[in-house]
Design brief:
Layout: H1 7-18, H2 24-31, H3 35-47, E1 67-74, H4 80-91, E2 96-101, E3 108-114, H5 117-130, E4 135-140
Helix pairs in contact: 1-2, 2-3
Pfam family, one: HTH_AsnC-type
GO molecular function, one term: sequence-specific DNA binding
Protein name: ArsR family transcriptional regulator
C-alpha cells in the first residue's frame, strides 16, 4: 500500500521516533494538532507499513553485552539451498542484531552483540559448524560513536 506523507505526518513520525511512549496528547501538542486527527494519521501510517513494530531500546553494556563485532563474510556458495540455511542460521541466533547482503567483495556483514570475546568465539564456532563459509573476518568495535534508529525526516 502506498501512502502520501505530508508535513504533519513527518512531524508525527519524528515525534514517534524520538519517543514512541509519549501520549497522543503530547504528540498532538508537539505537532500542533488535536488527538483524534493524530490518532487517525498514525493508524493510516501503520496500515501502510510506514510505522512498524514498537520496541524499547535497551542499554547493551548495562546488561553485560560489552562486545560488539562486525563480521564480514565471504562465501563461495550462492545456491538457494545454502542461502536459505545461512539466513535461517542468522535468524536463529539472537546475538545477530543486523545482517546485510552486500554488493562487492564481501557477501554479508553482521552486527553481533555478545558479552565478551569468548562468547563471540562460541557464536562463531556454532555458525561455521552449521553453514560453510569461505572466509570470516571479525572486527571488534572499540567505541560506539553513534547509534540510532531514527531516519532523517525533513519537516
Amino acid at each position: 500500500m502506498s501512502v502520501r506523507i505530508d508535513d504533519v505526518d513527518r512531524k508525527i513520525l519524528a515525534e514517534l521516533q524520538r519517543d514512541a511512549s509519549q501520549s497522543l496528547d503530547d504528540i498532538a501538542k508537539a505537532v500542533g494538532s488535536s488527538k483524534t486527527p493524530v490518532w487517525n494519521r498514525i493508524r493510516k501510517l501503520r496500515e501502510a507499513g510506514v510505522v512498524g513494530q514498537q520496541t524499547v531500546v535497551l542499554d547493551a553494556e548495562a546488561l553485560g553485552f560489552e562486545a560488539c563485532f562486525f563480521v564480514l563474510i565471504r562465501t563461495s556458495e550462492h545456491e538457494a539451498d545454502w542461502q536459505a540455511k545461512f539466513l535461517q542460521a542468522l535468524r536463529d541466533r539472537p546475538e545477530v542484531q543486523e545482517a546485510h547482503r552486500l554488493a562487492g567483495d564481501i557477501d554479508y556483514i553482521l552486527k553481533v552483540r555478545v558479552k565478551n570475546a569468548r562468547a563471540y568465539d562460541a557464536f562463531y564456532q556454532a555458525l561455521i559448524s552449521e553453514v560453510r563459509v569461505h572466509n570470516v573476518t571479525a572486527l571488534l568495535s572499540m567505541e560506539e560513536i553513534k547509534s540510532t534508529t531514527m531516519l532523517p525526516l525533513e519537516t
